[in-house]
Amino acid sequence: MTAMIREPLTDPARLNRVGDPDRPGMRRGRRLFKWLLGSDPHPTPGQMASIRQAMLAGDPLADAVVAMYHRLPAGQGRKLLDQALEQGLHTFDDPPEELTALFHQIDHEPIWLDRAQLRLACEVSHRVGLAGELVLRNLSLMGGYLAAAAAKPLAFTGELDRMANRRLVETGKFWIDVTTPGGLERDRDGFKSAVRVRLMHAQVRAMLLKSDKWDPAWGHPLNQWDSMATILEFSVIFLSGLRSLGFLFSKREREAVVHLWRYVGYLMGVDERLLPACEADAMRALYQVIATIGESDEDSRRLGEALARASLQDSGDGWLAKRLGRLEYTLRAGYTRYVLGDDAGDKLGLPRTATKYVWPAQIPLRLGAELVRKSVPSVNRSLIRLGERARREQFPKRVQRLKADTSFTPVNKLAR
């Protein structure tokens, strides 16, 4: 028997996931962001109403395509999507209305899109090498688990250890695709991966709404506010994590990274009214995400522990490999505690470790290297090439080792 879709929440006042932006713990952060921005980023009553509404909103265009999937024989909907992505809507005699509406949006190139900024953002992403993976995994993804309601879609997939590795591989492929120079051109992998991830999210959203596990008081699953916050994880949070290691970025480079992820967010169905247009917008949005974040819970801890254990599972066989895996696990946990603090580390179930002091200790060396890089253009170009080669070589090995799926196909069952 088909499960009944639970009635979606329409009254923002009934949301139980919204943190109080005026809580005492926000005072220091408010002062810091006010100093960084030169203005007060604290959400106004009108902005709080907009935030709550965004927590109740899905992605109508992608959701309609998924509803179309359910009306067709199994697998047929995905085939139609792939045809539209790979060959274009013009190859259909009579394309479904849902696909036409979706591709009308994604094939419309925004007037604000700057391809030169996309290229610069890709160079920045390459230049930082494997440090970028550290930050994405142990700050961006790990920090996202602190918001219990936003993390529920992942928690409900079950088999968290296996799913942690799958998410790392899927996120890695997605990131590589969209940060490859030219990757966001219409016929390239970055563009296609962004759209496929968007449809995967819509499929997960539909599964959750049909299940009896989703509490409407958490808002809409994979809603607009959480989706915008995910864009921040790849842009200003990514840059902040790298700067905490001693990396230096010019204003032009930081704006380019925000611009690239603004376009990725557009392709992934994030409301343009929510997408930051510049670094200052992104930092203001980040403050508001932090100010309204809800409480962590047991699922936050389970997800954090599973993501941390991925280092142990991926270490390979043999005594030395396992010892190195354990060292990596400890160092990564230390980095998370360094950037997010011990309170967050405890909520995520991470071990308390002195390795958190390793990361700030290397800042003087990194700063010295960065000053050399900025002074010698050939060094900068070499680092871009080395970083691109490192991720091109390392990622396929990880996929093969884990026998991972990189097709962005949602898990077809929910746990618990």
TrEMBL record:
Write down the InterPro entries for this protein, in alphabetical order.
Lcp-like (IPR037473), MPAB/Lcp_cat_dom (IPR018713)
Q: Write out the coiled-coil annotation as residue ranges.
A: none
Give the signal peptide, or none: none
Instruction: Kindly give the Pfam families that the UniProt entry links to this protein.
Output: MPAB_Lcp_cat
Region named Disordered: 1-24
What is this protein identified as? ER-bound oxygenase mpaB/mpaB'/Rubber oxygenase catalytic domain-containing protein
Q: Which residues form the ER-bound oxygenase mpaB/mpaB'/Rubber oxygenase catalytic domain?
A: 131-359
